């Protein structure tokens, strides 16, 4: 059965993007040896992606051309959004739990990749749907922006254990799994 996985990069102070959605602070670490390989290995096991409307619009604005995902993409949004021609994108409204079975079915034997944003990831976490978290912390403090889990107040997410960590040129990849 498909796992729900939040694979994400974060600043030292827990932000995944600047207030304006900017990721230039994170993109500076794209060349750290091993980070790209870690993502590519993860991506090969993805059968479906989910994201919020702002993340979807950011991707469309900042990565013009062909849609970057070849698997079905579900966009949770409260707004009217357009879709790219030829992309397998489903726009939905509602609680993440409502769509759990459909997302698992779309992913098949592979994983459901929670791309972001933080608020959507927080909804999945609060609903206890996240099975694994792969969190890469980069040595940057933003001082504000989009929180890792949106406004969801959390301590240590209940029921998760650290499975492993990898340090690469000042970045740390932490891998958690639901116990």
UniProtKB/TrEMBL annotation:
Signal peptide: none annotated. GO terms for biological process: riboflavin biosynthetic process. Residues 8-155 form the Bacterial bifunctional deaminase-reductase C-terminal domain. InterPro entries: DHFR-like_dom_sf (IPR024072), RibDG_C (IPR002734), Riboflavin_Biosynth_HTPR (IPR050765). It comes from the Bacteria. GO terms for molecular function: 5-amino-6-(5-phosphoribosylamino)uracil reductase activity. PANTHER family: 2,5-DIAMINO-6-RIBOSYLAMINO-4(3H)-PYRIMIDINONE 5'-PHOSPHATE REDUCTASE, DIHYDROFOLATE REDUCTASE FAMILY PROTEIN (AFU_ORTHOLOGUE AFUA_8G06820). This is Deaminase. The lineage of its organism: Bacteria, Bacillati, Actinomycetota, Actinomycetes, Micrococcales.
